[in-house]
TrEMBL record:
PROSITE patterns: CYTOCHROME_B5_2, FATTY_ACID_DESATUR_1. This is Acyl-CoA desaturase. It is a multi-pass membrane protein. Stearoyl-CoA desaturase that utilizes O(2) and electrons from reduced cytochrome b5 to introduce the first double bond into saturated fatty acyl-CoA substrates.
Length: 451
């Protein structure tokens, strides 16, 4: 008798071994979701702290920008500080603490934890817990930012409105024991204010006497820019681009989103190989976070940068390419299978050739009645071989026919000569278009094609 697993009321506090194997379907069946957001209840379902963080800084920043000229020094500081705090998210929150793609010294951990607070996207513990759930339950209702719910929802909607369901469980026991993560979580609010507002304003103020510009441009608008840059990892990276490594889920690779997200835009690769410290797997792909971590390793601040085997990465890429080729292959017309063709004796072949334009090549009978006027060598070469075996002539006796000619000839098969193909022509029987035909595993045992 099978015992149904105990329902997990609080997925935040469970041992991993207690999660039922069918957790997604089991939870969707047994856990009642909150009522959907409607025009009549939307204001009660808002997450007001998130609304404040997402709406107040851009509003104040846009108003301030109208009356605050952007000085060159402040513009440069905007770019520098955007990258610094961005690395706190991409290199710290994401690749270090969520995916453990490398090991960092305590110095680098504290630096990234402090810089990451300057983007005001929650503490490391909160952010990493949600992102691990996203990877584990991608594109399901237990994914906190399920891309199937729409571009706007996966960008900011999941934060503005209270979630209809708790995200699926994710093991964050390693983070609960990390002293840097615990320290940042405890002091997150003052750290966020200092790094998001006080530091960028003070640097511009003390540095070149642009207090107002530092507050508006390097503080508020920089905060909005970096926030939405990283939000695009959950939205645009599941919408724009292609899927070179896996086509089961929504994550995609795109150089445009890579530029927007500081290298996080090669998202299809990342979801397949999440513990790789690179998102831009190929050397030329734009991924400043990858270059930043490489530099940290050279400086002794980071070690054990993890990479997946090139063989496995290329195998995944080839799998998708073969699948795409298979799909293209199935849109084309192919010669009749051996089992679908009648077996004809030599005598029957000659008798039928008296009334039909039949020609025998490599053990197959072909009807070439519609090809006389199209034959490049002239109709006389075809007519003189009707009712005969033209194997030698076709395979170089008169002319070494092209691959296109072999493919076209195979489409004109109407029968198989009793006794089969002449010895030594077995490989030539298969037209070039089918020599590398893509077959499903289930087809291999019964396939009539050469291995």
């Amino acid at each position: 008798m099978l015992v149904e697993p105990t329902f997990l009321e609080n997925p935040e506090r469970i041992p991993t071994e207690a999660v039922p194997e069918n957790y997604v379907s089991y939870t969707l069946k047994h856990q009642e979701a909150l009522p959907p957001v409607t025009w009549s209840n939307w204001y009660r379902e808002l997450h007001w702290l998130h609304v404040f963080i997402l709406c107040v800084p851009p509003t104040l920043g846009i108003i301030g920008a109208w009356s605050t000229p952007l000085r060159l020094e402040t513009a440069i500081w905007f770019v520098i500080y955007s990258h610094l705090t961005g690395f706190g998210l991409t290199a710290g929150y994401h690749r270090l603490w969520t995916h453990r793609a490398y090991k960092a010294t305590k110095t680098l951990e504290y630096i990234l934890a402090i810089l990451g607070a300057g983007v005001v996207e929650g503490s490391i513990a909160w952010w990493a817990r949600g992102h691990r759930a996203h990877h584990r339950y991608t594109d399901t209702d237990l994914d906190p930012y399920n891309a199937h719910k729409g571009l706007l929802y996966s960008h900011i909607g999941w934060m503005i409105f209270k979630p209809r369901r708790k995200p699926g469980p994710a093991d964050v026991s390693d983070l609960r024991q990390n002293p840097v993560v615990k320290w940042q979580h405890r002091w997150y609010l003052p750290l966020a204010f200092i790094m998001a507002i006080a530091i960028p304003t003070s640097v511009a103020g003390y540095g070149w006497d642009d207090w107002r510009g530092g507050f508006v441009w390097a503080g508020l608008l920089r905060l909005v820019f970096v926030q939405h840059s990283t939000f695009c990892v959950n939205s645009l990276c599941h919408w724009l681009g292609d899927k070179p490594y896996d086509d089961k889920h929504t994550p995609k690779d795109c150089v445009i989103t890579a530029v927007i997200t500081m290298g996080e835009g090669y998202h299809n690769f990342h979801h397949q190989f999440p513990m790789d410290y690179r998102n831009g797997y190929k050397w030329y792909q734009y991924d400043p976070t990858k270059w930043f971590l490489w530099s940290c390793e050279k400086l002794g601040l980071a070690t054990h940068l993890k990479t997946f085997s090139d063989n496995e990465v290329q195998k995944g890429e080839l799998t998708v390419q073969l699948k795409q080729l298979r799909q293209k292959q199935e849109t084309l017309s192919w010669p009749a299978e051996k089992s679908d063709l009648p077996v004809i004796t030599w005598e029957d072949y000659q008798t039928q050739a008296e009334s039909r334009a039949l020609i025998c090549i490599a053990g197959y009978i072909h009807d070439i009645g519609d090809f006389f006027d199209k034959h490049p060598g002239g109709p006389h070469l075809l007519k003189k071989n009707i009712g005969k075996d033209a194997t030698t002539a076709f395979f170089g006796g008169l002319y070494e026919h092209s691959s296109a000619a072999h493919n076209l000839l195979a489409m004109k098969r109407v029968g198989i000569l009793l006794g089969g193909a002449p010895h030594g022509s077995e490989e030539k029987v298969v037209p070039p278009s089918q020599h590398l035909r893509i077959a499903r595993y289930s087809e291999l045992a019964s396939s009539g094609y050469p291995e």
